[in-house]
Structure formats: structure tokens, C-alpha cells
Amino acid sequence: MAFIDVKKLSKTYQMGEVTIKAIENISFSIDEGELVVILGPSGAGKTTVLNILGGMDTPTSGSVIVDGKDVSKFNKKALTDYRRYDIGFVFQFYNLVGNLTALENVSLASQICKHPKDSLETLKQVGLGDRSGHFPAQLSGGEQQRVSIARALAKNPKILLCDEPTGALDSKTGRMILELLQDTCHKEHMTTIIITHNAVISEMADKVIKIKNGQVDDILIQKNPKLVKDIDW
Amino acid sequence: MYLFKNSFIKIRKSLGRFFSLIFIVALGSAFFAGVRETSSDMIRTVDNYHDEYSLMDYRIVSTMGLTEDDIASLKELDNVDKVVPGYSFETVLDGNATKIYGCLNDINRVSIIEGRGLQNENEVLVERGTYALGDTITLESDALDFVKNTTFTVVGIVDSPMYIYENKGISTVSDGKLDTFMYILPSNFTLEYYTEVYLTAKDSVSKTAYQDDYKETISYLNDELVELKPIRETARYEEILAEAMKEIYDAEEELNKQKLENDQKFVDAKKELDNSQALLEQGWADYNNGVSTLENTRISMEKTFSDTEAQLDAGEKKLKDSLNAYGITLDQIAGLIEQINTQIEALNQLLATLDPSSDEYKSYSGQLQTLQTSLEGVKEIQNAQITLENGRKELEAGKATWNQQYNSSLSSLNEAHQELLNGEAELSAGRASYESGYATYLAEIAQAEQKILDAREEVANLEKPVWYLFDREDNPGYTTFIDSATKVDSIAAVFPIFFILVAFLMGMNTMTRMIEEERGEIGLFISLGYSKAKIICSYLFYVFLATTIGLALGLTVGYLIVPIIIYRVYVSMFVLPDLEVSFNLIMSLIIAVVCFGAMSLVTYLTANRNFKYMPANLLRPEAPKMGKKVFLERIRFLWKRLSFTWKVTVRNLFRYKKRIVMTLIGISGCTALLLTGFGIQDSIGSLMDKQFGDIEVYDAIFFLDEETSEVSDEVTSLLSDVEHYGFLNMETFTFNANNKNIDIYLMAFQDVTSVSNFLHLRSTDGTSLTLDNNGVILSSKTADMLNVSVGDTFGIRNSENELFVLKVSGISENYVNHYVYMSDVYYEQIFGKKSYNAVMTTMDDSKISEVGNSLLDSGYFSSVQYITDSMDMFQDIIRSMNDIVLLILGFSTFLAITVLYNLTTINISERTREIATLKVLGFHDKEVSAYVYRETLVLTIFGILLGLGLGVLLNQFVMTVAETDEIFFVKDIYALSYLYTFLIMTLFTIVVQFITYFILRKINMIDSLKSVE
């Protein structure tokens, strides 16, 4: 059985009298240590999938089995614990606490975990060992995103969820971030899911799940994914 | 147009913010307007009450009553409007000192609460809360000195404008405190003179009570009255004197007339008695004569009888001798006569037969002759015997007649004797009654003479009647009321400004936040080509709408409800009509202008700041504020000890300095308000404890009756029941400070060593003071106001404005009123006399009223002033202060909760993204709340601590403002008050945090994924 097993996942929103189907009957599976890219145009429903996978939202129907547990059946408290212990989240806009230094932003997440990594070590790992005392406003966008990744990694999660991690970055910086994510995935055997609308990024993935109009359009398994530095931008 | 539509949509979307803006404006303006307006509402209400029921401006009471002449001369005064004479007296009814008035129609009218007015002399109107309609009231018989009828039925329950205060002043009966009043028809009174007269000054109705122009208006009348007073007093004196003298003359005349009449009567009576005596004596003489005459008669009669008897006896003896001569007995006479007759007959017959010449014849003739002679002799004897017998019979009859005569004379004599004895008894009784009657008469005369003498003496000692002039300020509660109103004003001077300040701060905070949140939208409008003015207008519209609604709400509540609440607090001690609230248009406009002005300024400045940026910049989110190392981090050893979460908290705290300032001002302000509220309570509470517990330890001062001009043995013996007593002279003077004449009580003690039993005179540093003969001890506040210290001199003036200069030899701790204490020796030095008019006492607490009443009943004392009465007054003030504190507490609660809520919600809305991120990171709800709370809690605690400090200052300020000339407040706040304030504020914080917990829970994690809010 796969590490993550998504079956017939549907989510509908009731907007007044109109029912909007965000996703419908989405099914896929992800193995442990896989780097997966969920690819789709704006409004296809990929964020909804991410929200459900990340324990921020619950599906209308279907199931999400993560490491043998059905996340879709979790209550609020269990979902919080799930986010706390199993998920590392990398935001598009970094979402760093402006008033905390890089190191403190990492610690903010790690201090609530059971088996966190050392915050400073993690920062060093993302190449920011010498900037740990800086505040977000003193860091570049790429650096901020690396802090964000470090914050996610420091929690020592089961899954790393990245929501358009390069969306707010220029391509050069974006590549560095993607490299970091690929390295981390391979070195630490960390299951990593990247959500993006950028098809180029999908070349680095072990598995590409294409979503269109709320449904799985195609699932592509790449036996030999390209290294980020080899991808032609 | 669309901008305004947009504003409406904004309102709909952010109802909470809109309402909190409204609420803040409303709260600020309500408190500001309400508290400011209360005192003038109060004064107007009382003024209208006075006018409606025609409260007098002056009341004159004379010690000897007022006459029609008095009334007439009062009516002639230039500045007088109404002059209405009336009657009243005081009596004890059901144990209550009750004043009974003749009910008047055109002055001091009563306000009928229930029932109806008086229609006949058997009806009575009673004070609210005493008797019920239909009750029957029967006065004690002493009331008959004043009224005809003493049994009444209650037909109405009334309020009187004369008595607006719980405390109805003094009384001459019972314990010296008037308990209640009643009204009956004046026609029921039987007095020959009026007991009082009520006056109103010309134009006084149009003036507002308590205000300077009222005081000025009545002062003209006062001047005239002061002038008239001695004239009428003298006139009344002379009138009474003349009346009394006339009475005396009449009495003397009557006495003389009586004397004249009665003397003659007694002389006549005496003469009559003497006549009777003479008659009686004559009677006795006659009687005695009678007795001796009778005796003489008896003797002569008895002699006559015995003589007659002797004659008879002699005749009988002769008869017997004759008989014996015949040798017969008396019984034989008849037979003998018969025999002789027979023989004569026989002889005659014989002779007839015989020749007459014959010897025979001759012998027979001779024989016949002899026989005839014998017969004659015998017949003679027989006649003698018959005569004798008749004589005896006659004698017996004479004896019987005599005896009868004698007895009757004797009995009539005895009767006369008895009569005489009776006469004698009668006479002596008559004499006795005469004697006693005369003695009584003489005594009566003497008594009448003494009475006249006494009356003459009384007239000689007749005191001049005294007019007492009372104005409204002498009515119980009249000045207390204005003092209360002034206190409200003092509080109004401080608190509302604070409220409005906080309201502005909050408004500013809200608008700043709103505009910052909407900078993107502003950018959009600018990029679409809307003018700055239009955009600002759309915000101004929002603010104006909120401010208008807030003001409308606030001013309505402020003018219509707040004064009523405050008034209710005061009216609990007063008997007054409902408050007449009014809408102060000018003040409303000022408040509105200030509110709109301040709000628009804030809006303009904030909005304008955003126009500095290019529209493109505005469309991007505001750059996150630069994180900074805080000061605390430089203190490494401390920083290291902080847990991670606390470090975050500290860092966050310093991130938004404006928020810190806002929170600190808001929280500390509310805390200061609360603490001040409690502080006011403490100040007055401790003032009472100190003044009446530590300093004035006597129980009562009894004022000697004016006639008890000296300390006599009778007076001291009356005081045997009290624990300690000391005689003193107590007088009221004035001193001038701050251009005001302020009353000061002078106490000159007879025995300075005993003063410590009654007053603990001590200097402000605690050393006790004793009176000497070289100077006075002055109360501390007085010394402050006069700016004198030990060794200095100062002046006091009496009612005639005479100045007396005194030397200060000590300054004593004192909180209420002004006092100057001295020895009688020093008093004599200054005033040239020595007298005592009062006695200060301490008593066993359980005996106070008993001893007090007995002393008052003794007649030596005119009135009493119990220390408990003064304490009661302060209790009342404390009670009302409690309510004010409650009001402040209520408003502070609203304010504190609004401020806390406002700050917390703004804090949260500013940090939605951060909080959502925390949630995504897997923070539990509690952890998220704690993350936010910690900051608020720290700020709150700092705010409270700061507020406690501010509160001490605010309390000092308020108490200084509220301080009157007569009261010196202790500006201490008890530790417990700090604790209460702290706990209440903490409670508010917890309540608000509880509310925010739910707001935090509602924050959606997915927001964290969005770029801009």
C-alpha cells in the first residue's frame, strides 16, 4: 500500500444557491520519499487538494490515507495534531513572522514538535547558517523562502507540502529553492509534494499529477526525473 | 456615488468595527455631556420646585410672637413681595418630635402626593412615609395651648419644599431633632399672635436658586429686614410692657375694690356677732330672773299652803274641841241634827198642844229654846266642818294649780336654757367661721398683693423680644443639596475629559487600522482616477455616520439618562421631585464639533499619509514592519532566561509601539478611574474615622439655656450621670481666606486639663497639644488657608464685624470644619469677659439618649448636638459616594471592555495572516490564543500598574477639587482598594480574552495562503 492514498476525493462548496465542485473524484497515490508535482492551471482545484492533504480542509467525500490513517475522518483536534507532527508547509508568500529572526521563525515551528531537528542545523542545511539572526525584512525573497523551508523541515514532518514555492520569486532564485527541495527529498527520503502551475517544474518530479477542472487529467511517472540544474528554463 | 455605496458596504461588512466606533463616541459623549449637565439639571429642578410651591425667601420667628402690626410694617418694606404670617408648634407625637404647621396657600405650599388638601379643622396632611390616609391622629393635651382641636384624620400625604432633606433640623422637643411635620388648617390655632412670618423678596422667583443673582436679590430685602428688626423688637417690647403694666394696674384696682367691699362685710359680720352675743347675755339674765322668781313664788306659795293648812288644822282642832264639847264625833253630827230636829218637831207639836202660857209650855218652850240653841250650835259645827272641808279642798286645788303652774314655768325655763345654750354654740361657730374667713381673706389679699408684686418684678425684668431671621440656607438640606451638586460638578471637571480622550484615541486607532487595511482599495480608486478629496470623503462619510449615530445615542443617554442616575443617587437622601432633564444645545454643538473635528482630522491625516505613495505601491501589501532587536535582548542574562514563547511575546510587544501606547492609556485610564472611585470612598471613610474616631471623642455638646447664664450647682448636679463633662464657651466667628468669609467655631474651655477627655488635639506629626493661656490651637486646614504657623497671629470677626486678633500657639490635625480652641483665661484676655454657654460631655453609649433627654427636660439646657448626628451626615455622604463610585465603576467597565475589545480585535485583524500561519503550523487553539493573550496580558498588567500610579494622582486631584472650605480630605487610598481595582481590571481582561478566543477560533487557515488580505 502506498504511503499516501487518495481515493475518489471530492469537495463541493455551497455558495448560496450555487454548488461549486472544486474537485471531483480525484484519486492518486504517492510512495514514501517520492517527489510529486501536482500540476494544473489556476482554478483547477490543486489548492483544494493541497488544503485537504495539509489537513487544513476536509473533503466532502472520498478518503485520504496517509501512512495508514484516514485523514479525511479526522476531527479538528486530530487535524491540528496531524499538521503539527506530520506536515511541513512551505507557503508561496513564505509567511514568516516579521518580528522574529530567521532562527526564531524556525524555532517557532520546531518548539511544538515531538522530535524536531535542531533549528540552527536546519538553517545551515538550507544555507542560511550565517543569517540566522536576521529578520525577514533583512532577507531576500529566496532567503525568506529558504527560512520557510527550514521551518517546515525542522518539524521533521512525514510530508513536505509546498504551495507554489517559487511563485513569488525570480527564476534564478526559484531554481535554487527547487534544488533545495529536490536535494532534501532525495537525501532525507522526505515525501515532498509541490503544487504549481508551472509545467517546467514537473520535470524534476518522480510523479506528476495533472489536474484540470477539478479532476485528475493524467498521472505521469518519471523513472528518471531531471535534476533541477539540468532543467532547461 | 459609488464611493458612498462602497462605504455602506464597508459598514455592512465590518459591523463590529462600525458599532465599536459608534459605541466609543456614544460612551465618551454620554459621560461628558451627562455628568457636566447634571448639576445644572439638579439646580434647575430644585429651583422650579421652589417656585412652583412658592418657597419663602425669609422666615422670621420672634421669641414673643408676631403681631398684626409687625406684619403691617413688614408689608411696607420696599423689596418685599409676599408677607404671609403663619402658625406652628412642636409636640411629641408617638415619640416623634413633630412640627405642626398651619397650612398656607400662597407660600411654602405643600405638594400633595396622595389624597387631597385640607377642608376642615379635623383634617391633617402628613409627611410622606409617616402615616397612611385615613389614619387618626390625636395630639397630646399640651397641644391645647395652641389649637382647639386635637384629633385629626389624615386626608393627604405631602412633601414640603421646606423639608427637602432626610434630616429635618432641630426641634425644641424630644431629643432635639425634628422627626416629622404636619399641616392643619390655620383656623384651628387659638394663639393670639403669629408664631412666624414668611416673606418673599421682590423678583426672587425669576432668579435661579443658589445663584449669585438670587443671593443679590434677596440681600436687598435682608438689608431692610436687618434695619426693621430692632425697631419691631422694641415696639413689640413696649407693647408687651404696656399690656403687662395695664394688667397690673387693673389687678391692683380690682384688689383695692375687693378689699374695700370685703372689709365692710367683715365689720358687719363682726357687729352682728356682737349683737347676738348681747342678746344671748340678756337671755341668760332673763332666764336667771325667771328661775329665781319661780323659786321665790314657790317658796311663798308653799308658805301660803302651809299657813292655810295650819289654819285648817287649827279650825279642825277647834271643831274637834267643839265636837268634843258636844261629845260627839263628826260622824254623829248629822244624826244629832236629825235627832234635835225630831225633838224640836216633837216639842213644837207638843207646844202646839200646850197652852203657850203653861209652864209645861213654858218648860217645853224653854226646852225648845235650848234645843234650838243646840241645834244652831250643832249646825254651826256642821258648817264649820263644811267650811273646813271646803278650805282643805280649796287648798288641794290651789296646790295642784300651783304645781301645774310651777312645772310649766320650769319647763319653759328649761326650754329657754336650751335655747340659750344653742345660741351660744351658734355664736361660737359663727365666730369661728368669721375668724377663719377673715384669716383666709387676709391671706388672699396678701397673695394677690404678692402676685402683683411678682408681676411688677417680671415686668421690670422683661426681656426684649428677639426676631430671628432665617433664609433658605437655614432650611435643612438646602445647602447640603448645592454642596452635592457642586461635588458632581467637580467630578464632572475631571472624569468626562478623560473619557472623551480615550474615545478619541480609540476612534483614531480604529480609523488608522481601517485605512491601512484598505490601502489596496485606496490605491485602486486612485489608479481609477478618483480624486483624493473624494476618497477621503468616503472615509469621512463613514466616520461621520458613526459619529453622528454615536453622538445622537450618547447625547440622548447623556442628557436624559446619566443625570437621572446621578440624581437618583443624591435624591436618596432628599425629598425632591423627579429630575427635570434638559438638552443643552450649546454644549451638544460643542461636543459635536469637537467630535467631528477630531474624527475628521484623524481620518484626514491617516488617509492623506497613504496618498504619499504611488498607486502601484498602495496596491501591494504594506511592507512588513522591520523586526528589531528589543532593548531587553541587550540584557543577555535576562533574555537568556526567557522561554522561547516569552521572547516572542516581548519582541511582539515592542513591534507596535502605537498599540502599546493605546493599550497603556486605555487600561491605565480605566484603572485610574476605578482606583479614584475607590479612593474617594476611602478618603471620606478615613476622614470620618479620623475626625470622629480619633479627634472628636466627645459624645454630645449641651447648650445652656440663655437663662442658665452661669454654671450653678444645679447644673453640675444634673451632670452627675455623664462620664466626663467640661464647660466651655462656644461661639461662631468668621475668618477671611481666599476672599471668602468662612465660619470658624471658637471653643474656650473652663478646664483645659479636661479637654483631652473630649478632643484629642494633636499636631499633624502626632504630638499631642495642650492649651495654654498665651494663645490658641488652630485647626490645620484653617492654618493652611490663613497661611499662618505657630507664633503668628490672625484675625476673626464676630457677627458685628468686630475684629479680634489671636495668637497661634499650636496647629491641630482636623478634617471637618474650622476650629479655634483656647483657655477661658486667654478668652478673657481677648474678649474681656468669661462666660460659658455649653458643656461638652462623654457618656456611656447606652445611656446617651436617656441622659440627653433628661438634661433637655431639666430646662437648664436649650439644645444638644450629638456627635452621632454629625457622623450620620457623613454616613449619608459616604452612602451617596458609594453610588457615585458605582456609577464610575459602571462607566469604567464599559470603557475598559470597549478599549480592551477594540485593541484586541485590532491586534488580531492586523495579524490574521500570522495567526493563520500558526494554525497551519499546527498550533492548537489554546496555543494560538496564548500567543496573542500573553501580549495583551503583559500590556494589561503594565497598564494596570501604570493606572494605579495615575489613579493616585487622579484621586489626589479629584479630592483637591472636591474639597470644600469646610472639609479637608485625607488623600489616602487603602491597600484593599488597589487590590480591588487590580482584580476588577484583571476580570475585565479575562472577559475580553474569553470573547477574543472565539474570534481567534474563527480565523481561517486558508487565509495564510493568500498574498494580501
Structural topology:
The complex is a heterodimer of chains A (233) and B (1013).
Chain A: E1 4-15, E2 18-30, E3 35-39, H1 46-53, E4 61-66, E5 69-70, H2 76-85, E6 87-90, H3 102-110, H4 119-125, H5 141-154, E7 159-163, H6 171-188, E8 191-196, E9 207-212, E10 215-221
Parallel strand pairs in A: 3-8, 3-9, 6-7, 7-8
Antiparallel strand pairs in A: 1-2, 1-4, 4-5, 9-10
Chain B: H1 2-13, H2 15-52, E1 58-66, H3 68-75, E2 80-86, E3 88-93, E4 96-102, E5 111-115, E6 123-127, E7 136-138, E8 151-159, E9 180-184, E10 194-201, H4 212-326, H5 332-353, H6 359-461, E11 467-471, H7 478-517, H8 519-528, H9 532-560, H10 562-571, H11 585-611, H12 615-619, H13 631-634, H14 636-641, H15 644-653, H16 657-695, E12 700-704, H17 713-718, E13 724-737, E14 740-749, E15 776-779, H18 780-786, E16 793-797, E17 803-812, E18 819-823, H19 824-831, E19 838-842, H20 848-857, E20 861-866, H21 867-910, H22 912-920, H23 925-962, H24 975-1002
Parallel strand pairs in B: 4-9, 6-8, 14-18, 15-17
Antiparallel strand pairs in B: 1-10, 1-11, 2-10, 3-4, 5-8, 6-9, 7-8, 12-19, 12-20, 13-14, 13-19, 15-18, 16-17
Structure description:
The complex is a heterodimer of chains A (233) and B (1013). Chain A is an alpha/beta fold. Chain A has a domain of 122 residues: Rossmann fold, CATH 3.40.50. Helix content of chain A is 28%, strand content 28%. Chain A contains six helices and ten strands. Chain A has a six-stranded mixed β-sheet with strand order 6-7-8-3-9-10, with helices on both faces. In chain A, β4 and β5 form a beta hairpin. The longest helix of chain A is centred in the C-terminal third of the chain and has 18 residues. Chain A is globular, with a radius of gyration of 17 Å. The N and C termini of chain A lie far apart (36 Å). The model of chain A has no long low-confidence stretch (mean pLDDT 87). Chain B is of the alpha+beta class. Among the domains of chain B are: 195 residues, no CATH class; 177 residues, no CATH class. In chain B, the strands form three sheets. A nine-stranded mixed β-sheet of chain B has the order 16-17-15-18-14-13-19-12-20. In chain B, a hairpin with a 5-residue loop joins β16 and β17. In chain B, α2 crosses α10. Chain B is rod-shaped. At the A-B interface, α2 and α3 of A face α15 and α22 of B.
